[in-house]
Amino acid sequence: MTFENILVNKEDGLAIVTINRPKKLNALNKSTIRELHIAFKDLEANKSVKTIVLTGSGDKAFVAGADISEFAHFNESEGADLARKGQEDLFNLVENLATPVIAAVNGFALGGGLELAMSCHFRVASDNAKMGLPEVSLGVIPGYGGTQRLPQLIGKGKAMELIMTAEMIYADKALDYGLVNYVVTQEELLPLCYKLAGKIINNSSVAIAAAIKAINAGFSTTGYQVEIDTFGACFATEDFKEGTSAFLEKRKANFPKT
Ligand code: COA
């Protein structure tokens, strides 16, 4: 199958999926999410693929977030549907895939981009990577599982701070927080992922799939539904209109004071 927004390469038990919209910093639009859904389903069904590496095209971004231009005009129920469908089609799919997925974070991983990296089974970053969940600066909250997976990975207090301040952290801090497992130069990023994949490939795929299932079972929570509902509710607010308009108009948001 040919894709417009992603590239899929397979070699010796390894598949590399590259999100390929570099001019938009690989922002996740609807069709990219759909293509990723199809690609991950196909790769999971392909028994010769033992490990998947997910990365972004170019040297600037892994994924700079969900495509803001696509949802800025949504109402509350469209907002909730966006989060629900995205979680089902991509983020939960990746997290629960029987085949291990390593995120190679090669630049900005913001909003939906960091949420996608967090859905992967573990993360490796290049030293130019910047990560964050800036949604509250747009008048919304993370809607693709970020409110759940960030505290799981780095702890509640640090996650609260990152989400509330909307700040980006650099790769060294992400390593310190345990958000990524390794930080290397951009040139070393994919070779290190291939080396880690090589170690995984030698082990039992059946046992690894069982381990993924058991590890994820320990993190099942009703928080994802609360996230979908509250994400949708944000779409009915003046803050959301102002936040998304400000981004698209390339200006700073001026949120209502009351
Ligand atoms: N959605 C839609 N378009 C996006 C995007 C996103 N999340 N992130 C970047 N882009 C687009 C920009 O609009 C721009 O498009 P244009 O050239 O047609 O104007 C292009 O990608 C390049 O981005 P630009 O902002 O010019 O690059 P920069 O180096 O100045 O800034 C970022 C990089 C990542 C800091 C900035 O793009 C940004 O803040 N992006 C949004 C991050 C975000 O809030 N993500 C969460 C979404 S829920």
Structural account:
- The chain is an alpha/beta fold and 258 residues long.
- The chain has helices spanning 30-45, 68-71, 76-95, 112-119, 146-154, 156-165, 171-177, 186-201, 205-217, 223-234, 238-248, and strands spanning 6-11, 14-19, 51-56, 61-63, 101-105, 108-110, 122-126, 130-132, 169-170, 182-184.
- The strands form two sheets. It has a six-stranded mixed beta sheet, sandwiched between helices. A four-stranded mixed beta sheet has the order 4-6-8-9.
- The longest helix is centred in the N-terminal third of the chain and has 20 residues, at 76-95.
- The radius of gyration is 18 Å and the shape is globular.
- The relative contact order is 0.15.
- The structure holds coenzyme A (COA).
Concise summary:
With 258 residues, the protein is an alpha/beta fold. The protein has eleven helices and ten strands.
Bound molecules: coenzyme A
Q: Roughly how many Å is the radius of gyration?
A: 18 Å
Structural class of the secondary structure composition?
A: alpha/beta
Most strands sheet = 6 strands, mixed
What is the string of SSEs from the N terminus onward?
Answer: EEHEEHHEEHEEHHEHEHHHH
Morphology call: globular
* Average pLDDT level: 97
How many extended strands? Answer: 10
Percent helix: 40-55%
Give the DSSP E fraction (strand runs of 2 or more residues): 15-25%
Which characteristics define this entry?
258 residues; alpha/beta; globular; binds coenzyme A; 4-stranded mixed sheet; single chain
